[in-house]
Amino acid sequence: MRVLIEVVHIAIGLIAAALISAAAAWSYPRATGDIWLVGYACMIAVVLMGVGPVRRAFAEDKARLAGARPAGTEPRADG
Q: Any keyword Membrane (predicted)?
């Protein structure tokens, strides 16, 4: 389930970058090529920044399905 949430976050980031790039290209047609170049770079950055959280979510989901506790989720001694 966590993996799905992280993938949805990446998809939302890609959609937001595309919409912002489209609006910027529409508002300033003379720089359309440059705007889309920056937009594509932002989309690549969104995907690259999402890889770590997806890997962690995958590990947590896999551990939960195996019955083990994911790292960092041990019960606290005080409650």
A: yes
Residue 45, Cβ neighbours under 10 Å: how many? 12
pLDDT digits (tens, 9 = 90+) for 17-70: 999 999 999 999 999 999 999 999 999 999 999 999 999 999 999 988 888 665
Closest CA to 60 of 51, 52, 68, 48: 68
Residues in contact with 59: Cβ distance below 8 Å, sequence separation at least 6, in sequence order:
70, 71
Q: Record the pTM.
A: 0.79
Query: What residues does each domain of the chain span?
Result: 1-64
Angle 55-74-51 from CA coordinates, rounded to 5°: 10
Start-to-end C-alpha separation, the chain: 27
